[in-house]
Amino acid sequence: MSELSLDDNDRKILDLLRDNGRLTNQELAELIGLSASQCSRRRIALEQAGMILGYHAQLSPQADGTPVMGVIEVRMQSQVPEVVEAFHTFVARQPAIRDAFKLTGDYDYLLKVAVGNLAELSQLIQQLAGLRDCVGHLRTAVVLERLKEAGNALPDSELS
């Protein structure tokens, strides 16, 4: 990742793209007050500097086939590098784990998971618990309502 000094226009581009990654350079230019070619060069520079990590569609859980969402707090058994690496490998390879965060506090990691049903959630919990050299304790909660994701409030139709 290269160094890039962000000015107000770069920050405006990032803010606009956070809300709508489908904006064209022409649309960005009109919203910011720059030319489309300037916006294109700035976007490319932001991508190359690692400020823009990707462009994604946010799917509904029903469209994705994963209507059951949960969060799992993980306390590690050990912080030995090989143990942590094995856990990280499991997390990276498990498609049901959508987001993973290393934490401070009582638990070492927070996992956001999405599965098709409670049986799949139970199976994932069993797999995590089966990592005996890695995982010391798990605490799981099922999400009842999705109010806000990726910084955006969800429409009422998405909440239930």
CATH superfamily of the largest domain: Lrp/AsnC effector binding domain/regulation of amino acid metabolism (RAM) domain
How is the biggest beta sheet arranged?
Answer: 4 strands, antiparallel
CATH class of the largest domain, named Alpha Beta
CATH overall fold name of the largest domain: Alpha-Beta Plaits
Detailed description of the structure:
InterPro entries: ArsR-like_HTH, AsnC-type_HTH_dom, Dimeric_a/b-barrel, Tscrpt_reg_AsnC-like, Tscrpt_reg_AsnC/Lrp_C, WH-like_DNA-bd_sf, WH_DNA-bd_sf. This is AsnC family transcriptional regulator. One of its GO terms (molecular function) is sequence-specific DNA binding. Keywords: DNA-binding, Transcription, Transcription regulation. It comes from Candidatus Dactylopiibacterium carminicum. The strands form two sheets. This protein has a four-stranded antiparallel β-sheet, with helices on one face. It is built from seven helices and six strands; from the N terminus they run ααααβαββαβββα. It is elongated, with a radius of gyration of 20 Å. It folds into two domains: 41 residues, Arc Repressor Mutant, subunit A, CATH 1.10.10.10; 84 residues, 2-Layer Sandwich (Alpha-Beta Plaits), CATH 3.30.70. It starts with 7 loop residues before the first helix and ends with a helix. The model has no long low-confidence stretch (mean pLDDT 92). It is an alpha+beta fold and 160 residues long. Helix 2 packs across helix 3.
